[in-house]
Amino acid sequence: MYLIGVDIGGTNLKIGLIKNKVIIDKIVETTDKNSLVQQVKNLIALIIAKNNLKTCDIQKLGVGCPGIVIDGIVKESANLNLFNCNLAEILTNHFGIKTYVKNDADMAVLAEHTLGAGKGYENILLITIGTGIGGGIIINNKLYTGTGGAGELGHVTMYNNGITCNCGRRGCAEKYLSAVALVKRAKEIINNMPSELSSQENLTASSIEKAYLNGDECAKKIVDEYAYDLSEYLLNLCNIFRPNAIFVGGGLSYAPKIIEKTVSLCKNKHFGYKNSNEVLITSAKLGNDAGILGVVSVN
Question: For the whole model, what pTM was predicted?
Fold first, then answer.
């Protein structure tokens, strides 16, 4: 039997066909926020047909979606403009396949805990840093969701009366630490300093890291400022959860030197509190496939 995992992101929609816990086919499209549900249906149908399968060959579907997801219902996904959408029911009825819909970071942390960097740890956090910031929490080997929707770690306040966030609050972490925010921060600094990054149209965390490693002073300023803010954010999480490990996933996981610098700053500050246990902070192992692979563990 096969599984299908769907990872809905603010920029890209990814779908994978899985057999024996391995992705054997994958399709990636730009997320169509105007007709998202239909796009998901179309891609599921496409990957089934492309592999000469039938719906009866699919054991289950798993969908990860940013925002507040409770009992398969997307209550609020501000970045996708999706509200009160019973996506699990829609897809189950449409395909006749049991469908699980959870927060995208929850799906990703399930995958990392079962198949990736979190294997063997009882208490972990996964911070996905991409278009926004998501958080997945495993406590005592179980996904923690509280009364529903726990883990919105991108929406903790970093700066009082800061930038207005899509969630309606101000100063949220994702407005300063997401990959999108990193690029925005970089462009503002590049406007005031000479840099090899000036000629690049499509800045990414990886390209900023490359310039940083080349000794570009502008890139150094960008990385230094960003790593400091990210370290303070992670130190807060260390003090709140004191997990075995925090894994950084999403687009930032492809810039490991930025993560290494951040970890060094955390270590210099005793991982949040003197004489407390150290917290392993490192890149997630499954990269952008984690959200797809969450279907392996979801139930």
Answer: 0.92
